[in-house]
């Protein structure tokens, strides 16, 4: 169970830092920051994938698979917002989708057994 706790904390830390970098990058665009954020995308996917693999051992693969898909959608919207803003195009639709997917990912993730069940 220690592995699950440390994996969960590492995953939460990576996406928390990723969201902060994203918000800073959206406010003040910077290529170096965008590249650092892309590194965090990879770390988020790796730590989330590790949780998904661990969840399959506990019979929760489908639930964590749904969360994995939602998480990838969040990352996709983050990237779309930053790319469209850097090109001077409207990113309003992607901002809306980002907020919706982020809400559902957090809600679903915290409700799952390995999450921190704030919503019980």
Outline the structure in words.
It contains four helices and no strands. The relative contact order is 0.13. The model has no long low-confidence stretch (mean pLDDT 87). With 120 residues, it is an all-alpha fold. It starts with a helix and ends in a 9-residue tail after the last helix.
Overview features:
120 residues, mainly alpha
| Share of helical residues | over 70%
Question: From the alpha-carbon coordinates, what is the Rg to the nearest angstrom?
Answer: 15 Å
The secondary-structure element order is: HHHH
C-alpha end-to-end distance: 21 Å
What is the approximate shape?
elongated
Biggest sheet descriptor = none
Rounded mean pLDDT score: 87
Number of strands: 0
User: Approximately what portion of the residues adopt beta-strand conformation?
Assistant: under 5%
Number of helices: 4
Regarding quaternary structure, how should these chains be classified? single chain
**What structural class do you assign from the helix and strand content?**
mainly alpha
As residue ranges, the low-confidence spans are: none
């Amino acid at each position: 169970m220690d592995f699950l706790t440390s994996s969960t904390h590492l995953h939460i830390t990576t996406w928390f830092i990723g969201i902060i970098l994203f918000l800073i990058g959206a406010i003040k665009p910077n290529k170096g920051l965008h590249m650092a954020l892309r590194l965090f995308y990879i770390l988020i996917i790796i730590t989330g994938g590790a949780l998904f693999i661990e969840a399959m051992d506990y019979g929760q693969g489908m639930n964590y698979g749904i969360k994995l898909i939602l998480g990838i959608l969040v990352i996709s919207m983050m990237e779309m917002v930053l790319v469209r803003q850097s090109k001077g195009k409207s990113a309003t639709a992607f901002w809306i989708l980002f907020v919706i997917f982020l809400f559902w990912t957090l809600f679903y993730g915290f409700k799952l057994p390995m999450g921190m069940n704030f919503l019980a």
